[in-house]
Design a protein that fits this description.
Length: 164
């Protein structure tokens, strides 16, 4: 029976990856599919593009007036720093899923900006295929920025937070 479960999981992962590829290839923003295996067994998948690119220009635009008096050169490093995926301390998503910043609704967040974390400490949870996956800190440091919002969908490799 476990072989069938492993095969089903492998098929589900391949299915989710194919949905993500469709999203990219067709320039879609979101797909939502429900696969039914039986009366009490189903897979409900929502794949959405990361909307993190919207806040980044707003954050870059705020400091832009001050460097405008200087030269365009200081603006270029600021833009590079604002891309969370390029930050040296970026923690990225190991899977496609939905991010939860606290263990349950209404509970205190696992971490907040400014918190010191130890290697292996739980930073957040990503729900994927009806499984809650704890995402540990890859190294000790201080949480400088939390890039994702609670309940937001994430793709594989998407930046989650920055630890320095």
């Amino acid at each position: 029976m476990s072989d069938k479960t492993d095969a089903t999981r492998a098929n589900d992962v391949a299915f989710i990856q194919a949905l993500a590829e469709l999203l990219r290839e067709n320039d879609l923003t979101e797909l939502h599919v429900k696969r039914e295996y039986g009366e009490h067994d189903w897979l409900n998948v929502r794949v959405a593009r990361q909307t993190l690119m919207m806040p980044a220009p707003v954050q870059v635009a705020a400091p832009a007036p001050a460097p405008a008096a200087m030269a365009a050169a200081p603006a270029a490093p600021a833009a590079a720093v604002e891309d969370p995926a390029q930050a040296p301390g970026a923690v990225t998503s190991p899977m496609v899923g939905t991010v939860y910043l606290q263990p349950e609704p209404g509970a205190k967040s696992f971490v907040s900006v400014g918190d010191r974390v130890t290697e292996g400490q739980t930073l957040l949870i990503i729900e994927a295929m009806k499984t809650m996956n704890q995402i540990p800190a890859p190294r000790a440091g201080t949480v400088k920025r939390i890039v994702v919002e609670d309940g937001a969908p994430v793709e594989y490799g998407a930046p989650l937070m920055i630890i320095e």
